[in-house]
Amino acid sequence: GGRRSVVSLLAHMFRLQVYSPAPSRKYGQKEWNRDLKQVMQMTGVEKQPTVFFLEDHHLLSSSFLESINSLLSAGDVPGIWTPEELEPLLAPLKEEWAASQGRGGTSARTPFEYFVQQVKSRLRIVLSMDAKHPHFLPYCAANPALFSCTTVMWLDEWSEQSKNVICQQMLGEIATDKKASITGLLLHIHETQREIGASPRHFITLLQTCKSMYEARIASSSGQSTHLQKGLQKLQEVSQTVEQLKADAQVKKQAVSEKQQLAEEALQRITAAMQKSAERRQEVETLEQSTKVEQDKNEAEKQGIERELAEIQPILDQAKKAVGSIKPEHLNEIRALKMPPEPIHDVLVGVLRLMGNNDNSWGSMKKFLTGSGAIQRILNFDPRQITEPIRASVEQLLREKANSFEHATIYRVSVAAAPLAQWVVSCVRYSAVLVKVGPMEAKLKEKQAALQSSIDKLAGFKAELVKIDETVVSLKEEFQARTGEAEVLRVDLERATTTLHKADHLMSKMSGERDRWQQQTREIQRDADLLSTYTSLAAAYCTYLGQYSEDYRLQANHMWTTTCGLESFDLLRVMTTESELLTWKA
What per-residue confidence (pLDDT) applies to 124? Predict the structure, then answer.
């Protein structure tokens, strides 16, 4: 608009770069922060004097204006930069800041403060806001820097002399029309709307709309009168031609009707066969779709089960690997104890319970550790053998003796017991996952069985469909000659029907066409004398009255037509053509 043009012109005169956000449908806080960082880097690091131009449609959120408030008052937006972003951002300024410290030319104590000073000295923020916007006052009240750190420029009303000059320049020959002086009318219309908020921008829109409508009406009506006169002369000729077309169409329709009856009889058998084929094909398509849906569901459930197991399997494998790394001398150290510490005792209780041994005595534990292949038994143990009571018992042990199974605690007591503790915890978690996916696996097997049944049924349907298609092909070959004749007859019937319809349509339209065209000729002459007045009122409707109620529009219409000396004004008649009205009514 005009404000942006003025800002761009001034920026060019002072060699300033103009920067504005480009909001899109997904524009949000992240994109806004990105634009703020860009303009701050341009001014603070690249030393490019820049104008940051913002309009109402840029301020999608109140937080946007809060950022501008901080930028105006402090030269920075709190929290916009992360430590990772500041380091490369300030790197180019460190030497310059250090040099300025030596000369005593800046009060910045840190490179970041120096960066903020550069932003404040080179960044110019221009806010173009609508004072009538419902958010204007709350925004200004919540962001005091908009007044304390800026220069406020209000757009005031133009003088009468200025508006007269603008009318002459924008309307040109229309403003000097001797049949109707519209300059005064347009000024009066704008003046009546100032009390409801009309601004110079509305006045410019009024002039532009008036000129555009006037030129469009002149272009459309220039040859309309001559065209109507020629049309009246052709009406008589068209009437005679239509009568002849109607007679020919009636004769052809009767002949085609007789031949079509013969073609329809020949097509009935093919239609019946194809109907049966279509029904069976629909059944096959429906079954294929349902089968495809079930296959997709089964595959999704299978992947879900695999994901559940895949999440815990690496943990169990890691625990087994740790158990496999236990050295025999470490186990000997445990067996040599007269009475194990509590953490070792708790871990071995968990190992024995998982193995199905509920004897928690130290003798039982030593026997387990003394036996050959104790580590190999643990490595070969399948967590699927863990029953619900065993898992519940070990889970209770883990809850009651949680400290004993913490890696730091058990590793400090025994190097060998730490992997065993990790293995116990992993087995319990793996067993819990198996309990969770067990019903899912059983349900998946049932669905796979039902799916296989549907696949077998689908194969039977397809075989039956092949036989039906072969029958249809045979019928088509049998009646090929007769269907060809029926198609020719159908085309002839359509042509005859179209010809007859056109004839009836023309006759119905021509019944009152002569009187209507004569009336239009008189109306065109009358409208030519009041064209500038009508276009002025129509432009005023479009510019000022779009957002108001019908009552206010009637009041304004009465006031303006009284000023013009008109009895009434019909906006619809000015904005549309006769052909458009006929199309809408049809």
Answer: 93
